[in-house]
Amino acid sequence: MTPPTLRPFDPSTSSGQAKLRAGQAQDRPSSGSVPVLTARNVSITYEVNPPVDAVRDVSLTLHRGEILGLAGESGCGKTTLAYGMNRLLKAPAVMTSGEVVFHDGDGTDIDVGTMDAEALRRFRWSKVSMVFQGSMNSLNPVMNVRTQLQDVFTTHQPSLRRAGRDARCAELLDLVGVDPSRLSAFPHELSGGMRQRVMIAMALALDPQVMIMDEPTTALDVVVQRGIIRQIMRLRERLGFAVIFITHDLPLLIEISDRIAIMREGRIVEEGAAEQIYHAPQADYTRHLLSSFPSLTGARGAFVRGGAA
Amino acid sequence: MADRYASIRYLLPKWSGKLGAGLVIVGLISAFGVIAPFFTADPRDSGNKGLLAPSAGHLLGTTKLGYDVFAQLAAGTRGSLYVGLVGGLSAMLLAIVFGIIAGYFGGWLDEVLMLATNIMLVIPGLPLVMVIAAYVQNAEGLGDFARSSTLVALILGITGWAGSAVVLRAQARSLRTREYVAAARVAGESGLRVIFVEILPNLVPLIAAQLIFGVMAAVLGEAGLSYLGLGPTNSITLGTMLNDAQTGQAVGSRAWWWFVPPGALIALLGTGLALVNFAIDEIVNPKLRLAPQAARLQRKATKEGKGVAGGGAFA
Amino acid sequence: MVFYLRRIAFYLVTLWAAISLNFLLPRMMPGDPAAIMIGKLRRASGGRELSEETVKAIYALLGADKSVPAWDQYLAYWGRLLSGDLGVSSTRYPYPVATLIGNALPWTLLMVGAATVISFVLGIVIGAWVGWKRGTWLDHLVPATSLLQSIPYFWLALVLVAAFSVQLRWLPIVGAYDVFAFPSGPEWSWDFMVSALYHAFLPALTIVISSVGGWLLGMRNMMVSTMSEDYVLTAEAKGLRPSRIRDRYAARNAAIPSLAGFSIALGFVVAGSIVTEQVFSYPGIGKLMIQSVQGLDYALMQGVFLVITLTVLAANFLMDLFYGLIDPRVRSHG
Question: Between B and C, how many CB-CB pairs are < 8 A?
Fold first, then answer.
């Protein structure tokens, strides 16, 4: 099946530039079932001895403005898949088959897999950005927050002058609920929750159409987690980006996602709307996962005694 | 049964070209130093003609005073290895005491030991050794011992432990917070016992690496001292050979067979030890081996046409 | 701020320890170094009597007779030092030790200082590059650095001298400058500087070749470790240019431990420069140290040891300042 009009991403066109301007939410086509990121028959293997098939023949579609949850136990391949979609595979992982296509808001389709290095570099963060797990270490310890935020602008929007950059950075921190005075702080001076908010602000900098979040709140306590999740939801409503939310915390996904995909040993075992997964799970594994979480209601000790099937 | 060996295997270096080469070099040189002196001519026999170039009778020629260079080389290797071992071991023992005790017990003991260690670290080593050697070797009452290689080795050891102590302390400190140590302490094991049973075994690779450094530093240190005329006078070491070469105008006389082999042997020994240390480094810090290896595997697979997408991440 | 104050305090304590060690050593050894020294001075002066000042100085430095209490001796020693009196040299009679050191120090600082900076910069830059390209053929070069590191400084110097000075006659063997062309000593002329550079080249080259390996290896290893850190992955995901990732994210963080290990490395450089100066008869402080030890010129020995220690402490402090600039975590934690 040949995908329609594949063209490498070109920021020099007027439509490309338009997309790069900040705050372009209103230019997007209305969300619904318009796909923004499609993975078709993707397989990823770790070339060790013997080779490990981390992702097996996975097909996934992310639609504009939706939150797609990707759930599964540790080692099921969800992180590998997400990294593969942005071509960030750590050695020795290799994508052995399939393709990943980004459907840009201006109508063009971009084949992520075959872009050359320079095009890929420009594509990254401006179309698809990422928020990583445990930002303990995701921020450069020797650069202050301002420099790390401005990095993105000096690289992707060189025409933006100093004043514009400063204004934009302050605006971003404001969006995520961090006091702009923290711009001169270094990562070790911030709390875990604040660091994660800074990461989210950084991910929003170029107004991306997709945000891939890999266990963004796993390392934080539940109260902080709630605050951050709410922030993400508010931002998404305001700015309209789509989210792939990766976590092992299935109940959380049921709360916030539109659609959920369950992965196990490299394959997607079930995929569907959040309500459907919760009320009528089709696959045995999904039922097994759901029943493995302790409940705040119901008889005490039930999930331990009842056991997983 | 398999489990018991698994833990030992985990601590051993992974086999690699580097490790093999290193072990071979060190092994050959050690064998040379230990065995060869039994088979060569007498290194102290000055009955030969001076400054002969290498020939069948004298494999590496003779020195200015008529000593057979090859015989001297063999004896010198033995002497240098001896100094290296004694110096390295004494430095390691001091490093273990200062480093591990400071790192494990913490508190004021740590502060005091660390202050002493830092002072020893900053005060420049060779000048200190020279000064101590000058005083000790000329002190009355020590007799033969004053100019022996054992004394030189001990001086080198006593002044050379500071670097290793810092490294060991850092590791001991981080190990102190591990769960199994806490468990042992809760179970009532005394501090020293915890050190011996829980912490020391985990530090074995690190201690081995530091020992290798120590041996090398002692060999180089003795070579330097001897070259300056402060080395042992009773024994023959590679350093004393170089000193003789210097005073005998070997460079000016173009007697390369006299001054090149001893230094080359020191360099070779050091290289061999360093190669072994590389392998140990990779145990202590697995990223050093895994990251380049992973990158190579990824590249290989891409070349074989396995990948459908372009390159992945640098990291 | 606290960080710097702590470091200064530490260096002062170390200096005090070094000075006290200098004070204790001659007094702890069996025998009487002071008497030996006085005897040598007398011989050096041709049998003439020494001035009372000189004798007093020697006793203050090396140990008076047992009737004077140790604490008084200690104070007298400090008094001497602070007034800049380091005694008179027996091997270079009648020059005062301070003068000899003053003449020799600049040569060492220039040659060794330049060589150290060059090898540091080269090592870090090349090490960063080799680390960045891990997994390529460059990895096989790494063991070569271990060969470089194991070569004894002075042997390398001998080999270089044999090759370049004796055999090829390209470079001079001894001295800091051409003593025949400038018989009255150093002067501020272009010709003199050229001569000085010409003479400093081979000794400096020796030091650079011997010490660059250590920096290279350390930096390469840190680079490989740092590149697997999360923030480097973030930088890549941000679509930053590879050169920026390499320099600002990877190398900057990888260089920090190298700076921290500077004081250990400096010890090796000092050792290497001493023997190198001996091989090339370079009139620096290392050669002075050797002369004093070989001739058992105790006063000169003490003085040189002190000055070397002071210089090393100063270099360390400079490095600490630099380190505090580079690593912001140090500034807040102290």
Answer: 208
Convert the pLDDT of each residue in B23-81 to its tens digit. 898 999 888 888 888 887 777 777 777 777 777 777 777 777 778 888 888 888 999 99
A172 or B133, which is more confident: A172
Inter-chain CB proximity A88 and B313 less than 8 Å = yes
Chain C positions in Cβ-Cβ contact with residue B313 (cut-off 8 Å) = 233, 236
Do residues C220 and C131 lie in contact, with contact meaning Cβ atoms separated by under 8 Å?
A: yes
Amino acid at B149: S
Q: What residue ranges define each of the domains in chain A, with the CATH number in brackets? A: 34-127+232-294 (3.40.50.300), 133-207 (no CATH)
CA atoms within 13 A on the CB side of C326: 18
Binary contact (C225, B288; C-beta < 8 A): yes
User: Min CA distance, C122 vs chain A (Å)?
Assistant: 23
Residue with tokens 């935020």: A149
pLDDT level of residue B308 (50, 70, 90 thresholds): low
* Least confident span in A42-51, B121-130, C173-182: C173-182
Mean pLDDT within B82-102: 90
Among C134, C234, C326, C330, pick the best mutation site for testing chain A contact (most A Cβ within 10 A).
C234
Label residue A229 exposed, middle or buried (CB < 10 Å: 0-12, 13-18, 19+): middle
Chain C nearest CA to B188, separation (Å)? 34
Tokens 């997309």 identify what position? A19
Chain A residues within 8 A (CB-CB) of chain B? 45, 47-48, 83-84, 87-100, 112-117, 120
Structure tokens at A217: 């709140």
**pTM more than 0.90:** no
Substitution target from B298, B300, B303, B314 for chain A, most A beta carbons within 10 A:
B298
Q: Helix crossing, B69-95 with B200-227: angle to 10°?
A: 140
- Domain boundaries of chain B, sorted by first residue: 20-284
A158 touches A150 (CB < 8 A): no
For residue A25, pLDDT over 60 is answered with: no
Phi, psi of B252 (to 5 degrees): -65, -35
CATH superfamily of B20-284: MetI-like (1.10.3720.10)
Say yes or no to pLDDT of A228 above 80.
Answer: yes
> Is B34 within 8 Å of chain C by CB?
no
Cα angle A234, A239, A242 (rounded to 5 degrees) comes to 90
